[in-house]
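It is worth pausing here to work through a concrete case rather than discussing structure prediction in the abstract. The textbook approach is simple: state the sequence, then state the predicted structure, then interpret. We follow exactly that order.
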Amino acid sequence: MPRPRNLLMPIEEYARETAPIQGKRVLVEMKSTQSDMTGVGFFTVKKAESIESIWKEAEGDANNQYSLVSEGILQTEDNRLVLSYEENAIEGVEGCTTVISFDMSSPECVTVERRGPLASAFVISRGERVFSLYSIPYGAIDMCIYAKKVENLLTVDGGSLSLDYAVELKGLTAQRTQMEVTVRDYPVSR
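Step two, the predicted structure:
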């Protein structure tokens, strides 16, 4: 099992003005299940064995389930595959765009950005702990991400991405997210 590394992901790297994303029009289907991980503190854990042990103890029932079907854009930029889609169908994230990207030579390390009123940027890499910031209208909150699973089968032709990760906002309960994203060609109307 890979040993967790502490990675720092400053949001400033991603909180920049970007040109409109252009590329192949695709259909994005996302299903997400979230559950609270009461009592879990990823900020303070020191050893890989401790993280795995805490994860097993905190596995609970899902308390939020979301699904979304949206038009998206799939493109490549400097050997990175970039998928973007609007989240307007999910309550509370109106006006947000999600951008999922990864270096095609390292598909197991995925960057997830949310652009809009609730901005965040973080890396999901199996077995690694990543620190970042979550930006809300009132300021920024420290965030810690730990991924248990990254199964990335996305290509320039579409495919799927399966993630199982936890996010802890400092001082709040950690939340586990299990997400399945499927990308396919946008249907052509006749």
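Step three, interpretation. Residues 1-17 have pLDDT under 50 and may be disordered. Residues 48-58 form the longest helix (11 residues).
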